[in-house]
Amino acid sequence: MLFLITLGAIVSLVLAMTWLKLPPFVAFVGISILAGLAFQLSPELIFKAIQDGMGSTLGSIAGILAFGSILGKWVGISGAAQKMTEVLLSISGTRFARIAFMMAGFLVGLPLFYSVAFMLLAPLVITASVKLKQPATFLALPMLASLTVTQGYLPPHPAPLAIMQEFGADLSKTMIYGITIAIPAILISGLWFGLTTKNITTPANQAFVFVHDEHQPSERSLSTIPSFLIVLFPIILLALGSFGTGYFPKMASYLSNPIFSLFLSVLLAGILLKRIGFTSDELLSSSMISIKDIAGILLIFGGAGALKQVLVVAGVSQAVADSLGASTWNVYVLGWTMAAIIRVCVGSSTVAGITAAGFMKVILVNSMADPNLMVLALGAGSMMFSHVNDTGFWLFREYFSLNFRDTIRSWTLMDTLVSITGLIGVLVLDQILF
Hints:
Blueprint: H1 2-18, H2 24-38, H3 43-77, H4 80-92, H5 97-109, H6 114-132, H7 136-153, H8 158-167, H9 171-192, H10 224-243, H11 249-255, H12 258-275, H13 280-313, H14 316-325, H15 331-346, H16 349-365, H17 371-381, H18 391-400, H19 404-433
Helix pairs in contact: 1-2, 2-3, 2-13, 3-6, 3-12, 3-13, 4-5, 4-6, 4-10, 5-6, 5-7, 6-7, 7-9, 7-17, 7-19, 8-16, 8-17, 9-17, 9-19, 10-11, 10-12, 13-18, 14-15, 14-16, 15-16, 15-17, 15-19, 16-17, 17-19
């Protein structure tokens, strides 16, 4: 019955937004209440779950989105996005622009949380799409595949790191195996599959990036090094935070927090922009516009978090784990399937991976499976079929101004390919190594 109610909630959510044309936030809250009633939760428990879900989701992402949006806006108005795009394209050439963005996505995605990396790189892709007169989705998918893979497979991202600690896996082996699997996954799901999206010609949402005016005086434009510094500074800070715990633990704990690192990055960007002639009023005005632009996305994230929490409180994730526990499947396939089903039902890749890990830990002890490969199997499963209950789905849809159908056939199918190729990679490595 839990699965039927969950399926009904997801279908109803899609219909509410596509047929009834309800705003996503209204649809999420309404379906969360109806789902809670169907699960026979008390009114107090339903509304507590909605409140907790919104709070936990927005609490972890609101600051990141706000600072990331401000930084992205300033990257645009300062000409930094234009300058970086020109440098990337001068190295790769127009023909290999997608490869350049794919590599940038992987390098930037390693130390940064997905939302931070997305907020920094999306303006560059949108700027390049305007400059090259190519579809934004077509250019973006290789970069997004890189970000998705690094988030799902590789520490120090939250879910892989938590799963690794749960299984007692080795960090260096998990990273080596993960990068080995990540390369074909990115090439297939991003570079190759991205070719099928070339006919999605909807212009990206220009509200999220200011396409720099080429006629703007040069003294109001950042040069090459400051342009790259604005984008790379939060990456450098977070990398120092991740790898500096043994040298300066107290400072590392600050730097490893993405909100703090982005805060410092915004301060640096403000100083650099003031040095080239931007006034405080101009910076304030542009930052207010950037915050206004993400208000709708924040509401959608809060609504998705509410539905996720109602499903968690109702016991959907535990029910999935229990129903698959008695299976005689290959242990990697079992872990991947468990994480994938929880992901589809709940929406959060972190919840999916960690929930599946808690159950698979018992099975792993009694099997011959390699814990490092199991981390990757669960990480791949937690990326499966992102749809309306995943905040990443809405972030991509809003930035690239796609309708529901095009979001499914680009973003959702890309995530699905990342998940499937990841599992295949785990099974192949298992045969080669063991």
